[in-house]
């Protein structure tokens, strides 16, 4: 499968979402409590601290051009990607879902017990990007806000 090149160190550093209205999306993610960094970029691009990979926002059409994919038709169906907000307790899951909805998110699926022993619900941001809010067995959330996985 190609030349025997040394493998680079793998890392996921940024997740970028294409958005319709930069100002509204920036306000939404700030209202959820994510801290915006490098705000000198104005409304051209926005970056937020998440406790893990950086969350980026970029105008949908420009992001489509950047990756050389058609901007339309925009998918109304599931896009095969979700973001996750792992929690420590079921009460935290409920509180996060309620808070996100109070800030303009849409409820996709109420929180419920899962068949794998967790507790999960979904909301969508103003552009329809789905977020799972979840407590999952064996995935701990540390004081550093990161998900810690067992070996």
TrEMBL record:
Gene3D superfamilies: 2,3-Dihydroxybiphenyl 1,2-Dioxygenase, domain 1. CDD domains: VOC_like. SUPFAM superfamilies: Glyoxalase/Bleomycin resistance protein/Dihydroxybiphenyl dioxygenase. It holds the Pfam family Glyoxalase. It comes from the Bacteria. InterPro entries: Glyas_Bleomycin-R_OHBP_Dase, Glyas_Fos-R_dOase_dom, VOC_core. Residues 11-136 form the VOC domain. This is VOC domain-containing protein. It comes from Bradyrhizobium canariense.
């Amino acid at each position: 499968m190609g030349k025997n090149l040394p493998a680079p160190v793998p890392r996921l550093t940024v997740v970028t979402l294409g958005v319709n209205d930069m100002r509204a999306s920036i306000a939404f993610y700030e209202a959820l409590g994510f801290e915006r960094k490098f705000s000198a970029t104005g409304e051209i691009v926005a970056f937020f601290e998440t406790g893990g990979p950086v969350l980026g926002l970029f105008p949908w059409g420009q992001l489509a051009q950047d990756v050389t994919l058609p901007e339309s038709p925009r998918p109304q169906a599931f896009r095969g990607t979700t973001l996750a907000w792992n929690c420590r307790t079921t009460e935290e899951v409920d509180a996060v879902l309620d808070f996100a909805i109070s800030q303009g998110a849409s409820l996709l699926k109420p929180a419920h017990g899962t068949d794998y022993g967790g507790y999960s619900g979904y909301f969508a941001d103003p552009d329809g990007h789905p977020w799972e809010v979840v407590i999952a067995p064996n995935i701990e959330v540390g004081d550093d806000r990161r998900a810690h996985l067992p070996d």
